[in-house]
User: What shape does this take?
Amino acid sequence: MIRQILVPLDGSALAESVLPAAAALAGGFGARVTLLHIVEERPPGTIHGQPHLTDGDRAQAYLEEVARRPSFRDRVVDAHVHLPQAGDVAESVVDHARELGADLVVLSTHGKSGLRGFLFGSIAMRALQRGTTPILLVNPTAAGEAPPFVCRKILVPLDGTAAHEPALPIASTLGRAWRAFLHLEIVVPTVGTLSGDEVVTGVLMPTAKRALLDLAERGAQEYVRKLAETLTAEGVPTTSHVSRGEPATSLVDAANRVEADLVVMASHAKGALDAFWSGSLTPKVIEKLGRPLLLVRAKEDADR
Assistant: This one.
């Protein structure tokens, strides 16, 4: 259940692209929304060509104006400006999420600079590293506008292990609230799309490696089939599929194939999100998804 949603805003129109999603989720779950602006110690002069809010009173007035907008009518919305000035915005977001008991943080990918410019060394990545609250990333439209939030089909990428199953509870919760369909997808690489240390094995023992991958495919099919049957029996219509190929490309293909409105997946957060980004879901590929992405901490990370 989503009861508390945290929405950090920097005063820019691009950051406001998250507002339809936040309002829709608040309405669907009867959740409370907290609009947050963090006054930085060394703020930039402008944000995406717009003046940056560096004054606490102006920031409070801005958040209160946002809270009065029609999209938040009949919603419970709080406006909070973080003072004194913060040196680490990501840490402040994590602290506020923890203090509020937030069930979800909603952030914009700030589309003009692209996902790479926003995630690497910035708020979303560091917030996921340091906190445990799920993060919903929303892409502005090509024109920099706020996209409508719909949730009819949800793609849940898995890897066949319990580590990535934390994505399932929140995906099924959204599925019930929106009467959406879930689709579970596992990507098993081919010998030609192996990465890391497995490349050597694939080159030296291609036949043996191919047999192991074929066996993994059959195991994955049984794994997602059983999960889909369980979720469907619990009232969330769910389908499943196992594809072969390079994980990142296959994920984008799967999202397009099932016409997913939302992708919900577990992510490892150690280091610089190495397990999530390296050789798999690169920022460029996530941007190509062209749809909201909800990141949940993978099990071994969330247990720490």
Notes: The chain has a mean pLDDT of 79.
